[in-house]
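Worked example 2:
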Amino acid sequence: MSDDFDLGMFQSTPDELIAKKPYQTGCPVTGMAAEFEPFGDAYIANPFEFFRRARNEEPIFYDPKSDYWVVLNYDYIVDIFRNPETFSAALARHPVTPLCPAAAEVRDNLNISIEPSLVDEEPETHRAHRKVFGDAFTPKRVNEIEPQIRKIVTDYIDRFVDDGSTDLVAKLLYEVPALAIFIFLGAADDKAAMVKQLGSTRVVVNWGHPSESEQVDMMKDIGEHWAFTKKLVDDAFENHGDNYLGDMARLHKSNPEKFTVNYLYNVMFLMQFAGHETTTQASANGMKALLEDRDQWEAICKDPSLIRNAVEEILRYDSSIFAWRRIATKDTKIGAFDIPKGSKILMAIGSGSRDGKVFADGDKFDIFRKQEKKHLAFGNGVHFCMGAPLARLEMQIILEELARRLPHMHLVADQEWEYIPTLAFRGVQKLYVEWDASKNPAN
């Protein structure tokens, strides 16, 4: 697909796609397409009601407003994930809102050398790179940082445990995953807050609906993040630490043909973002779901052995990535529908993970559900998220420590749920809780 369209993170939309007329012949532009408003307030607040109806009425439909084929049922989504030759990942990080010329000029002046990496490269190079970078993402590397992650979580809880109320996102879930990925990569934690803020910028630039002036300002922020990443990698070549980035620097020096230095810049740029933004949002969504269903929260407080399964149910029920994109490399079909070459595909993975044909009573949150890890929170097929073990570990530790230290906390009543409006990412931005600090369990 890259031979036809130059797609990718922070790239300008190619003229071929701008000029491409929305597909019309034989497409199901009916009720669900007319109702599909992915940046509308109702959809951002709760896309799952729309998903439920669409799965029953039109599990695939074409939306001429956005020029996306929207796919909602589990089996179709899995088929798309597992056929990267036909459904290219090149579109995955391409800006949903086309980059304006002024923002593109800022990008070019900053010399941000973005290239496809792991999540959006073509199958042949992806297979080679995934083996290299995935093989180094070992259980040993993940498990050896478990004590450090747990200490970070407990230290953050210590800061507010006696206050009687807090915003769990601001005071715990926002920074902790960034600190965890920094430990894994071998970065100094004094820059974690900066990278966290810049990660939020990337969400909006790539998957949101920013104005042109916002694009320009955000591109400047992204330039700062790119410069930080380059220095991080360059320092690793000078001083190989006992961490994942150190492993990759040693590997490149021993065999430079496996990947270029610029490719390593790009992977580290990706991992700093993907390694924390998704975990923050999934953890926030999970705590909201648990505290809204008091019986299930109290169950994990009484029996922490349930937490591992609860993490999987959170990922299935309301994960941080609820939609992902592909582009057709040739004329093909999805179900009964003809999909022309160049068609953009929006996989509603949040819908697929609730598909009643795969998950009984899929719209019900149930931590006792028998989990077979079929959910789509980490994708499927060759692009399955290699960071899944680290994300699961972080979420498990967060739940274990909150259940141990604050089993009596509850949601502040009548709070409004705020989400950043994007096509792909979903997570509550504030999560106010309160408790009687005089009843805190003894440590």
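Residues 282 and 320 are 5 Å apart (CA to CA). The first helix runs from residue 15 to 19.
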